[in-house]
Amino acid sequence: MSPEPNPRFAAENRDDGQPGAIVLVGGTSDLGVALVAELLAGQAAPVVLVARPGAARLPAARARLRAAGASDVRVVALDACDTAGHPAAVEQAFTAPVDLVIMALGVLGDPEQAWKDQSAAVQLFEVNTTAPVSLGVLVAQRLRRQAAASGRQGRIIAISSVAAERVRRSNFAYGSSKAGMDGFYRGLGEALAPEGIRVLVVRPGFVHSTMTQGRSAALAITPEQLAGRIVQADRAGRTLVRAPLIFGPIMAVYKLIPDSVARHLPW
Fold first, then answer.
1. Which of 89, 173, 192, 200 could form a disulfide with 114 if both were Cys (CB 3.0 to 4.6 A apart)?
2. What's the mean per-residue pLDDT of the chain?
3. Of 76, 78, 86, the residue nearest 21 (C-alpha)
4. Structure pTM?
5. So what's the pLDDT on residue 111?
6. pLDDT band at residue 265, thresholds of 50, 70 and 90?
7. What is the CATH T-level fold of the domain 20-262, as seen in this structure?
8. What's the average model confidence in pLDDT over 241-257?
9. What is the DSSP string of the chain?
10. Domain segments of the chain: what residues?
11. Is 174 one of the catalytic residues?
12. Catalytic entry in 125, 174, 206, 247
């Protein structure tokens, strides 16, 4: 069931009586698209998909969001690894007022190759850490300028991972790349809070998606289930959310386990 329209999304921070755009960075992300669709329930708004040019799943993402009620779906080209091109992409995404930016860039990588192959390791960190930080700085600049010019305070939802809380031996390259991104956005939220710009960091467990196709894990959830949880947290004004909720107590215990024991755990 879709949630009631988010009162924050529907009414707050409008300087012209109209909803601002939802910008999805990582425009073909299964979770990102599901989240935008959930936010659109009962409230039409323009959507900007920031994605790799020619991405195979882009037409399907556009079609789903149009069906979900987007008043317009626009595409901005982005090469995540080309940081020199990031300023132009962000400028194009902000050609109209923006209420929300969702940062959903990420790759899982091969757990073994990511620490044995230099190019694989660099690409993993470029997509999971460097690109979100680069884009986060630019997005924060634009949101601050927008707030100063019109009083319209946007917000950011950054998709991290529960793997960022304590890096595990079984996939330490991925976990450490997300830890860098996670720490940046937690700090960014603190820095922007005095200006009324909120950052929500999301730490999901295993999500059934294109990125995780062919893999499985305990406590797995779907993008739609996670999207509903994120919207609830967004409504409540949270700055951090884990999903499923059980990961809260699990990680509280896991972080207390000595390294000598943790390295022998099977997950």
1. 173
2. 85
3. 76
4. 0.85
5. 84
6. low
7. Rossmann fold (3.40.50)
8. 62
9. -PPPP-HHHHHTT-SSSS--EEEEESTT-HHHHHHHHHHHTT---EEEEEE-TT-TTHHHHHHHHHHHT-SEEEEEE--TT-GGGHHHHHHHHTSS-EEEEEE-------TTHHHH-HHHHHHHHIIIIIHHHHHHHHHHHHHHHHHHHH----EEEEE--GGGTS--GGGHHHHHHHHHHHHHHHHHHHHHGGGT-EEEEEEE--B-SSTTTT---TT-B-HHHHHHHHHHHHHTT-SEEEESTTHHHHHHHHTTS-HHHHTTS--
10. 20-262
11. yes
12. 174
Q: Cβ-count burial of 167 within 10 angstroms (0-12 exposed, 13-18 middle, 19+ buried)?
A: middle
Instruction: Let me know: does 155 contact 100? Beta carbons within 8 Å.
Output: yes
Q: Which residue, chain included where needed, has tokens 């529960």?
A: 162
Q: What six digits make up the tokens of 75?
A: 């595409």
Structural tokens at position 128: 């999971």
